[in-house]
Amino acid sequence: MNRSNFWRRILYWLTVAAGLVLAIVPLPDWLDPVRPDLALLAVIYWILTSPRIAGLGYAWLAGLFLDVLHGMVLGQHALGFLVVAFLTHRLQLRMRMFPIPHQAGAVMLLLALYHFIVFWTDGLTGHGYTGWNRWLPVLSGALLWPLIVAAGDTLTRRTR
Amino acid sequence: MVELSHDSRPIIGRGPPLIATFVTLAIASIALMVTDQRYDQLERVRSWLTAAAYPVQVAVDAPFRAWNWLTGSFADRDRLRQENLEVTARLRLANLQLQRFAAIEEENRRLRDMRENSAGVAERALVASILNVDLDPFRHRVLLDKGKADGVFKGQAVLDGEGIFGQVWRVNEHTAEVILISDAEHAIPVQSNRSGVRTIAVGTGDLSRLVLPFVTGESDLKQGDLLLSTGMGGVFPPGYPVAKVTRVERDAKATFAIVEARPTAALDRDREVLLVWFKAPAPEPPTVTNAPAPAASAAPPPTTGASTAAAAPSTAADTTPSQSAPVEDAAATPAPGGPQ
């Protein structure tokens, strides 16, 4: 039990690390605003599958690393990740019963909340960007959700 | 997907309850944000964290760098030869200008010595390359591969070959974040090269556009005016090109005219930029004595011959717009120098 938990932790951190790297890889200008929040999607997925291993601390640290990589105010994305992780924990028994499209809808709401928190703190710290395209990742993330589930399920099937 | 034990939340005695962790971490992140925003207490923590992030950033940058290197090494011979020819031609022109420039610099130095003020001379520059890392799609920040270890400091001016690029916003151990002049949070004091009107150019979040919001209707600014840095505030060296005015719209009813300008620096195309050290307006004794020594030793060779003659008329013409003189002159020389 402990041993397999250890490897699972490693796996969860590796997927988040991959998501963080993809968050700063240069993309063409038109694609840049659409970039989905892969790290956050990975966090949501792991909380849904194994909430006892992927806890709030895990989500919070992942958000903090994103702040560092982006050079933002420390704690901004950490707070967003934390709120999303908390709600996912609360809803996970229900969300796991949802069919995938329904689940994607729930994920979209979570992403919208996350972006709202980031937008809000941006405004408070005085860097508000109010263009409509800052909300595009919400859509792209929700559309990507079925793929994330498929990828995650194959990964866990192999490691188990 | 998984067995039942995985999805049951801890009930009793399995670590702190969810809500407690949530509240603690939420308070922690808000406290972090406030301290980071209001006070500079977090420098140490941030430097550790960025040290952890540095390998990631380098790893992201590496494939792009390798690709550039590869395409660079297989570039065809013809193109290289062509480039070589062009570069040689430009170098010849530049040398021609430099001859005059050296004379003018010498002249300028003497005048400044008389005023006991050697402000505005970029005395040291360091080439830094931009890491291929996207920080935020809506802010104009880039990451340089030079940091505290190379002597970079916060607020340092960053230039490229054509003009002012931005300033250092945050320094880490091996990297530095630069805020571009086109960032919506950036403003730079400028002066028109032609009329000497002083104002402030503010970034818009659009790489090819700055706005000058504080130009009154009567100000003498025209389309095509070159805006130079004034050096006010001590961040940027004076007399470097910043932007070219692209649009001036005057409305008799409004107090301010609508003025837009396009940055002269290649903000979106640069791979390499210059970090400069220059004399701040308030000179300290030891650095002042250091600075003229290399300038003096470098200047005499070209000044001996015909260029002293060239220096004489140019000083007469150019002393009036005080700080912008060298650049203005350098910009004017290629026209007569080119055809010869």
Summarize the helices and strands and which ones pair or pack.
The complex is a heterodimer of chains A (160) and B (340).
Chain A: H1 2-24, H2 38-49, H3 56-70, H4 76-95, H5 100-124, H6 136-159
Helix pairs in contact in A: 1-2, 1-3, 2-4, 2-6, 3-4, 4-5, 5-6
Chain B: H1 4-7, H2 18-38, H3 43-73, H4 77-114, E1 122-129, E2 141-144, E3 157-160, E4 163-171, E5 176-180, E6 187-192, E7 198-203, E8 210-211, E9 226-229, E10 241-249, E11 258-263, E12 272-278, H5 285-290, H6 292-298, H7 300-303, H8 307-318, H9 325-332, H10 334-337
Antiparallel strand pairs in B: 1-12, 2-5, 3-4, 3-12, 4-5, 6-7, 6-9, 7-8, 8-11, 9-10, 10-11
Précis, in short:
The complex is a heterodimer of chains A (160) and B (340). Chain A is mainly alpha-helical and 160 residues long.
Structural overview:
The complex is a heterodimer of chains A (160) and B (340). Helix content of chain A is 74%, strand content 0%. Chain A has helices at residues 2-24, 38-49, 56-70, 76-95, 100-124, 136-159. Chain A has 160 residues and is mainly alpha-helical. In chain A, helix 2 runs parallel beside helix 4 (76-95) and helix 2 crosses helix 6 (136-159). Chain A is built from six helices and no strands. Chain A has a single domain, classed as Orthogonal Bundle (Arp2/3 complex 21 kDa subunit ARPC3). Chain B is α+β, with helices and mostly antiparallel strands. Chain B has a domain at 76-121 and 282-340. Chain B is built from ten helices and twelve strands. In chain B, helix 4 packs across helix 8 (307-318). The interface between A and B is large, with 49 and 49 residues.
